Amino acid sequence: MDLVWICIIAGLVAAGVAVFFVRYVLRQDQGSEKIKEISAAIREGGLAFIHREYRTLAIVVVIIAIVLAVIPSLGWRLSVAFVFGALCSMGAGYAGMNMALRSNGRTCAAAQKGLNQGLRVSFRGGAVMGLTVVSIGIIGLSILYFAWHGLPENEFLFIIPAYGTGASLVALFARVGGGIFTKGADAGSDLVGKVEAGIPEDDPRNAAVIADNVGDNVGDVCGMGADLLESYVETVIATMTLTTVGVVIAPWLTNLFPGLSTDAALQAAWWLPLLVMAGGIVASVIGCFLVRVGEKVDMSALLGALRRGTLGATILAAVFGFLVIYFLHASLSLFWAMLAGLVAGALMGESTNYFTSYAFKPTQEISEASTTGAGATIIRGFATGLMSTWPPIVLIAAAIAVAYYFGSFYGVALAAVGMLSTLGVTLATDAYGPIADNAGGITTQAGLPEEVREKTDALDSLGNTTAATGKGFAIGAAAMNSLGLILAFTMAVGIVTVSGGKLILPEALSLLSVPVIVGIFLGALMPPVFCAMTMKSVGVTTSAIIEEVRRQWREIKGLMEGTAKAEYGKCVDIATRISLRQMLLPSIMTIVAPVIVGVVLGKYALAGFLIGALATGFILAITLNNAGGAWDNAKKWIESGKFGGKGSDAHKASVVGDTVGDPMKDTAGPSLNIMLKLMSVISLMLAPVIMHFGGLI
Question: How far apart are CA 622 and CA 282, in angstroms?
């Protein structure tokens, strides 16, 4: 059987299980009429936003596709692959978000029956996102193989990066636009409601609560799904591209694939990442069914339930990866390279969990600092975010070193494949979080008993931790992925060659050369400027939301007394209009910057540019993600009754910390992942053009 059919079958298995989970969730009780009404309002707002965002994005995709098609060295096939990648990313994000919008009210109703039932409904709703992403990713790559694998290698080489570029572009818009929407609505709702008016979170008198709930879906489900789809496909693309451009055409190739001819070894090296992903899909499906918990509302039990699913999938993925390597007659050294990435990904999740969960000391110390005021909360939380950078960086460095030792540069790319092989279940644990968060909000707005809110709060707090863990995992995957793409770019433009498994570097690529130094400084500048733009955009949205809520309290008689209904749609519309307008500048900057550097300053400066952006972006993304996650859960720890509980001075200080952390962990930080990957894959896609420009320096 042709190996491509194994990949397609694995993708169809994931799609089939996703359909099973859809049917399971939709069969669940939707709850009372009040729950249905609130859930319908959230769904209406979410779909309205995504439809408007996709219309805007479609214009950008068409313009770029036309430009790519008319450039002689690129052509229409590359343009079609770009559009296909964009459509795959849009489809994955839309399907996952649509399911999340239908799961929130059902989770609320399920939590009335028991904690395990609430976890099962919300997790399976999130698993639809995870399994849809891996299904579309692997089937999409297989379709490209069917369509154009017969082309000469120098043509097919740049078609598959175009697919990744299309997916990256959609992911960037979804992450930035959705992130600005969700955190503008969230911060505005918290500041005007909990801090200014002193009313509870998700209180129906607050006109921004529906916009807040909508934002959880458009930013944390649709945005994250699009983000990790492009990570998923680009790890495979980077490995395939390295193979195609000749990084493994070296004397040591027969050592990695003993007993095979050079041509057979090249084919095996090309298929290996796809088959490892296929094995990871099966492992993820099994891991999804391992998630279950008892009825005791205990954070350690809930964490254990999700950890059982992710770690179970990790072990199975390692087993399946070993079998793939064995049946392809590859050296066992490639298994150790793949395992290095797989283990690093799992440990990075645990590291993020330690620094962001209120079950551990770092977050508890932030809660304690809140007893002395908001300033202390900010200082301690930011220090925690900075300190949390060392484990992921050490783990990534160790994984790169181990993978290089066992498999040279091909091994490094394969380590990234191993890290993302269990994405189906990893993304499920992440997408579960916004569903649980929505369920908690609906519980309050529907006036359900306190014991139900206690269960949804436990699920929500777990969701904060899993979301932070998922973002940490995505950051690590982005770093590994970008590294593979950068290496593929340097090979494609002829900067680097390989002889005997060793890099041959021209003198112009020396770290002391002017083009490289200039490129590094310009690249290092990109992440902080990008973060400044996105966080400022959240601030603009927040201010507009606050003014609208204040207006309604002034003008709608009886609203604060609970006898009148807020105009929730106004806040949704405001957040939609501003976020779609604000997302354009940082997105366009990300697309244009590497092109300008490559054309004006040349390929050596562009190589330095990508490396500089990766170094600062990786550290900045970890800091923002973990500081924001820790502030969020420090607030949850106080709300559980510690340090005075809800309404105390410590709680008010923690709300300020959470508000500061929201745009850091849900807008700027996650968007950095996509920025790094998009700039790298654009450079690789445009290599046939950039290689002809000598540059001004």
Answer: 30
How far is residue 122 from each of residues 115, 426, 626, measured CA to CA in Å? 11, 14, 24
| pLDDT of amino acid 694 | 63
Residue 502, helix vs strand vs coil:
strand
User: CB-side exposure of 341: number of CA atoms within 13 Å?
Assistant: 38
With 0-12 / 13-18 / 19 or more C-beta atoms within 10 angstroms meaning exposed / middle / buried, residue 163 is buried
The three-state DSSP-derived secondary structure of 280-346 is: HHHHHHHHHCCCCCCCCCCHHHHHHHHHHHHHHHHHHHHHHHHHHHHHCCCCHHHHHHHHHHHHHHH
- Which pTM value belongs to this model? 0.83
Q: Give the separation between CA 54 and CA 91, rounded to whole angstroms.
A: 10
Q: By the 8 A CB rule, do 695 and 601 touch?
A: yes
Residue 220 domain flag: yes
User: Tokens 């900057």 sit at which residue?
Assistant: 589
Q: Which of 231-240, 471-480, 530-539, 639-648 has the highest mean pLDDT?
A: 530-539
Can you tell me the distance from the alpha carbon of 237 to that of 160, in angstroms, rounded to the nearest whole number?
Answer: 6
The model's pLDDT over 546-563, given as tens digits with 9 standing for 90+, comes to: 888 888 888 888 878 777
Please name the residue that has the structure tokens 């519309």.
Answer: 573
The pLDDT, as a whole number, for residue 488 is 77
* Cα angle 578, 583, 586; round to 5: 140
The CA distances from residue 192 to 196, 556, 655, in Å, are 5, 16, 11
Phi, psi of 360 (to 5 degrees): -125, 165
Look at residue 383 and tell me whether its pLDDT is greater than 90: yes
Backbone angles phi, psi at 337, to 5 degrees: -65, -45
The CA distance from 222 to 231, in Å, is 14
Run of H or E residues at 497 = strand 497-499
Q: Which two tokens stand for residue 246?
A: 């000749």
What separation in angstroms does the CA of 193 have from each of 165, 190, 206, 555? Answer: 41, 5, 6, 17
- The amino acid present at 110, given as its one-letter code, is A
- Whole-number pLDDT of residue 264: 77
Whether 697 maps to a domain, the answer reads no
> Which whole number is the average pLDDT over 426-443?
80
Torsions phi, psi of 222, nearest 5?
A: -65, -45
The number of folded domains in the chain is 1
Q: For tokens 């929500």, name the residue.
A: 460
**Separation CA 212–CA 505 (nearest Å):** 51
Instruction: Please report whether residue 696 resides in a domain.
Output: no
List the end-to-end C-alpha distance of the chain, in Å, as a whole number. 52
Give the structural domain span for 432: 3-690
Residue 72: phi and psi, rounded to 5, are -55, -40
pLDDT at residue 516, rounded to an integer: 86
> Once rounded to an integer, what is the mean pLDDT over residues 97-110?
87
Burial of 251 from C-beta contacts in 10 A (0-12 / 13-18 / 19+): exposed
Helix or strand holding residue 659 (H, E): helix 649-663
Which residues, 6+ apart, have CB-to-CB distance to 590 below 8 Å? 172, 526, 530, 675, 678, 679
Residue 511 in any domain: the answer is: yes
One-letter amino acid for residue 569 of the chain = G
609 contacts: CB under 8 Å, gap ≥ 6: 519, 520, 522, 523, 526, 593, 594, 597, 601, 679
Other beta carbons within 10 Å of 503: 15
pLDDT at 248: 45
- Residue 581: partners with Cβ closer than 8 Å, 6 or more residues away: none
pLDDT of the residue at 528? 94
